[in-house]
Amino acid sequence: MSFTWLKRYMPRSLYARAAMILIVPVLALQAIVTVRFITDDLRGVTRQMTLTVSRELRLLADLAEGAGSPQEALDRLAPYLQTLNMGLRFVPPDQVPATDRIPWSDYSARIVRDTLRAELPETLAVSFLDSGRVSFFFRTDLGPAEVFISRRRVTAATPHQLIVVTISFGLLLTGIAYLYLRNQLRPIAKLAKAAEAFGRGRSVPYTPAGATEVRAAGSAFLDMRNRIERHIEQRTLMLSGVSHDLRTPLTRLRLGLSMLDEDDARPLLQDVAEMERLVETFLDFARGAAEGEPEETDPHDLVRQIVADAQRAGKPVEIAELSGSGALPLRPVAIRRAVENLLDNAVRYGSRAELSVALTDRSLRIRVEDDGPGIPPEQRAEAVRPFTRLDTARNQNKGSSVGLGMAIAMDVARAHGGTLRLGESERLGGLRADIVIAR
């Protein structure tokens, strides 16, 4: 039998699951002890006390047998009633309750009633309305009689004492265990926060602590983080060095071509300019999202600046929609580079581009849409890989590309703990590129 459906109702956080592991056994133990106490011990004690009272009542009935009047019966029973600490009186039939008077929550009273009716068939009614006294109504030859005794004669003085003690100690032990377990879970929570921050491009201080297994996991995380940071640094230095070394010969070529005839040098100068643009693209890819530290940024203001700069450069870019409000930690330089790359692709392969921003309590979405040919669904995963050029999907005659624009945008999105999603624009019919970042 599968219990996978239970997963929907299970708590998500580690603290909640640990609390459930502690509380469920304690509640189960308390329920078992309570049921056992009520069904066996409490029932047995109450029944035994009621049987004793029923024998005393039977004795009184035998002593009163043959009395000519109620007063004569009372005179006979007076010494015994005082000894047995009971009271008795004869009542008119209309003062006998039609039904037993027992509170719905009084479990012991129901045991007394059932036991008494089984032992004394003459019982007419039982009343437990008075918290300190119990009244029994019986049928006699002289008319209905009421016997009243102290409730403590038929029920235990503190039947709830064991339950209260069990619950109190259960809560105390649960609290102590939770405090201890919280100290054990705290290092795991710190490790999770450090890993989440690193996934969003931030490196927070972290020191392994806790149990041996948690320390081992923390040390492994630190080693992994250091290796990734060294890899990123080495990649950046390598590409930056190569790009920097290429600038010198390119500069010499430009100077040499400037001395030639303008008509002869123009095609070569265009080639040099294209090579310089490719070098700048390599540098952008090498830098990735490493420029600057995250700072509180209003994405609406950032997008307005990007669109204004693109419009001044003569690009057909417009703002379609800005929704939500607020600021969140971003690397504005890296986000600008990613959005500008998406806009460059949009206007290269389409006649216009639109940019929109949706900011909610859970995520930030920056969307770039164009009216170009788009990218087929089966090629979208490949489109975000570095140095990928989809000649069949995009018109390469409209501009040259080294195939890093989408890769840079994806790199920046991942460095912020988000992703880049490609789809079809419902508004313009071309490509839709979404940078989605969780808050």
Automatic annotation (TrEMBL):
One of its GO terms (molecular function) is ATP binding. SUPFAM superfamilies: ATPase domain of HSP90 chaperone/DNA topoisomerase II/histidine kinase (SSF55874), Homodimeric domain of signal transducing histidine kinase (SSF47384). Its EC number is 2.7.13.3. It is found in: Cell inner membrane. The chain crosses the membrane at residues 14-39, 162-181. Keywords: ATP-binding, Cell inner membrane, Cell membrane, Kinase, Membrane, Nucleotide-binding, Phosphoprotein, Transferase, Transmembrane, Transmembrane helix, Two-component regulatory system. Gene3D superfamilies: 1.10.287.130, Histidine kinase-like ATPase, C-terminal domain (3.30.565.10). It catalyses: ATP + protein L-histidine = ADP + protein N-phospho-L-histidine. It is a multi-pass membrane protein. Residues 241-439 form the Histidine kinase domain. One of its GO terms (cellular component) is plasma membrane. Residues 182-233 form the HAMP domain. InterPro entries: 2C_sensor_his_kinase, HAMP_dom, HATPase_C_sf, HATPase_dom, His_kinase_dom, HisK_dim/P_dom, HisK_dim/P_sf, Sig_transdc_His_kin-like_C. PROSITE patterns: HAMP, HIS_KIN. CDD domains: HATPase, HisKA. It comes from the Bacteria. Its main location: membrane. The keyword Transmembrane applies. This is histidine kinase. It comes from Jhaorihella thermophila.
